[in-house]
Design a protein that fits this description.
The structure is a single chain. The protein is an all-alpha fold. Helices cover 79% and strands 0% of the residues. It has five helices and no strands. Helix 3 (71-95) runs antiparallel to helix 4.
C-alpha cells in the first residue's frame, strides 16, 4: 500500500511518520514475496512495536492538545491496534516465523492504516487550520 495525498493530516511530523510506516510495511511485503521474510520478521515486529509506541504517543498528544473531536476514539483504536501487534509478537515468540501469519499481519496493517487514517487521523485538519 502506498501513501496517498488524501492521507495528509495537516501535521508534517505525523504525516512523515505515517509515510515511514507505509514504506516499511511495503518493503517487508516485498521481502516476504521474495521468500526472505523469515530473515527479517523479528526486525519488522520490533519496528512495529517501537513505531506504535512512539507514533501513537506523538499523534495522541497532538490531537488532545488541539482538542480534536476524535482524540478519544483515536486513543481507543490505537490500543486495539497495539493488541494486534502484541498478539503476533507473542505468537511469533512461541511458534516462530510463518509466512501466512506474516501476510495476514501485513494485510491487517494495510487495511487498518487506510481505514484509520482516512476516518480518524485526517480529522486533525479540522483543528490545525
Amino acid at each position: 500500500m502506498k501513501w496517498q495525498p488524501e492521507f495528509a493530516t495537516g501535521d508534517a511530523k505525523i504525516d512523515e511518520q505515517h509515510k515511514m510506516l507505509f514504506t516499511t510495511s511495503d518493503q517487508f511485503r516485498q521481502t516476504l514475496e521474495a521468500g526472505e521474510g523469515k530473515k527479517t520478521y523479528d526486525l519488522f515486529l520490533d519496528f512495529l512495536t517501537a513505531y506504535c509506541e512512539m507514533h501513537f504517543s506523538v499523534e495522541e498528544k497532538c490531537m488532545f492538545a488541539h482538542k480534536c473531536p476524535v482524540a478519544s476514539q483515536n486513543h481507543h483504536e490505537h490500543g486495539l491496534f497495539l493488541r494486534i501487534i502484541e498478539k503476533e509478537n507473542a505468537r511469533f515468540r512461541e511458534d516462530g516465523f510463518d509466512a501466512g501469519f506474516a501476510t495476514k499481519l501485513l494485510d491487517t496493517i494495510d487495511s487498518w492504516m487506510e481505514s484509520h487514517i482516512c476516518r480518524i487521523d485526517i480529522r486533525l485538519k479540522e483543528v490545525l487550520v
